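User: Hey, quick favor. My workstation is busy. Could you predict this chain's structure for me?
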Amino acid sequence: MKNAYRAFIQYSRQFRKNWLEYLILFGGLDIVNQFAVIPFFRWITTFVLQAGEIPFVSYQNLITILTKHPLVVISLLIELGCLLIIIYGEFMLLLTGFREIGLSNFRWQRIFKQTRETLSLLNLGSLILLLGYFLLVIPFADIIFRTPLLAKIQIPQFIIDYLTRNGWLISGLLLFYVLMTVLGIRLILTMPLMAYQHLHLRTAMHRSWQMTSKFKWATLLEQIIFVTIFTSIFTVCFYALIYLFQLGLDLLPGKLPLLTAIFNLSFLQLGGELLAIWAGTIILLVVVNPLVKISELSIATEHVSRGLIEIFTLILLVMGLTTIANNTFYLMGHGIRRPVTISHRGVAEKNGVQNTISAMEKTSKLRPDYVEMDLHETKDHQFVVMHDENLKKLTGVDKTPHELTLNQLTQLTAHENGYRAKVASFDQYLAAAEKRHQKLLIEIKSTPRDSKEMLRNFNAHYGKRILRDHDQMHSLDYSVVTSLKKINPKLKVLYIQPYNFGNPQGAADGYSMEYSTLNQDFITQAHWQRQPVYAWTVNEEGIMKQAMYNRADGIITDNLGELNAAIKDFTGKQSYANRILNYIIVIPTSGGIEP
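Assistant: No problem, here it is.
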């Protein structure tokens, strides 16, 4: 631990010597990613999909895309290759910059020249290897260089939730993370070796493995963990001081609390970015130290060119003014609106059995705007309220809804959360909801065994009632969305997306998006098309507030009571200090700088 502390102090001194150069290096890359790289690739992806008449990419149409749209597949693979090259180039620029900034004969031009030279180390075969390498080191790279570009590379939270439902899957997931961590730390010197010794990827990976043998990797990991913990504590203290300071300033008369709050929130955002760059610099210096001795580095002798400073200052000024304007609107409560509240599967805080009438009746007392529920077609082409494709988990019967008639299904009793209740038909559930004036968000669950006339039968029986009740519908199956819109254009049908991929497009009236990859950019673009976006399934206060901060139109949750409390806290009249506190709460789930 002493060695980790000494390294931390030494690298902090190095950062203090050349803080402006590090700020331009990190900040410049972040700005390029935010306003050029990510928008460009999102536009290209959307263009390619539109050209192939493919509205979205999901697990349900992946096989169709692979087998029937070869040009789209080739285009997306080329796009992936270009993205890998850009990510590689950015890290080469960072690594080369770190070595050059500390040298006495530092020149900015040499950083770009040497970065171009490192691109020659890549070939078509190494791109596949590079993809695997990035997946291994992303957890460490994300600590060093947190950007929305890297935030895209992640496992959706609903998959992790699924994997943590039983002991065997949890054990397997933990083993996977341990293995990924060990492999990642053993190969962490690969890119520094490519940048500093111009080794090819495979050779650099082999050399990194040798250099981290005999538990030498443990020293690297110890220092990374120490820096991460220390800088996190420092950051938390910084945020707490800003909040406590504003608490006192809120007692001032007139407009002074608002003016000081605008300054403090802007200062908090700027300070947070500087602290992140400080932490990233130290961790990267920890990583490259085995190859470039920090003691040999000195303060940069070349002054940053006047033109570069002027350009960077102008960009920061524009971003700063935009940030101040956004902060003013936020602190005054403008643009903050209450999202639609949606109870996931009709339960709240485990108050009953999912998708049952008794649970819905209890949940409706909490006054959600919508109760979300699921439908399956039965053997006799009726509709039963059920989420799972197999009944065993809830009822103990190892059958699918398609194997039983509606009468057989409604004789079954479901068990969950210490409660028991009869399986309900949609007629029963809909009548109970209408009795309580409870609007529904109806999910159509599709399977290969569905009848060809399923959706027409559904619309014939329930279309008019759904419109009269102002209910909404959504589905994971895009063909269900398009078919329902053709059968009954008046129905409001949303498309459920498990992953944020490309820009919003297609026939859907809106989107239900898995929260961990949903961002403000997607929501804003959907709003330009006058389409609502719901976030699912959001069960933590901080993420609920993040969704509200990003202006999500609705939040689907298992914890309706907690959501109601979070909405009251976030949208209600409150002190400026508490608005700053709410912003602090949403920071951990944000990706990159919010303009």
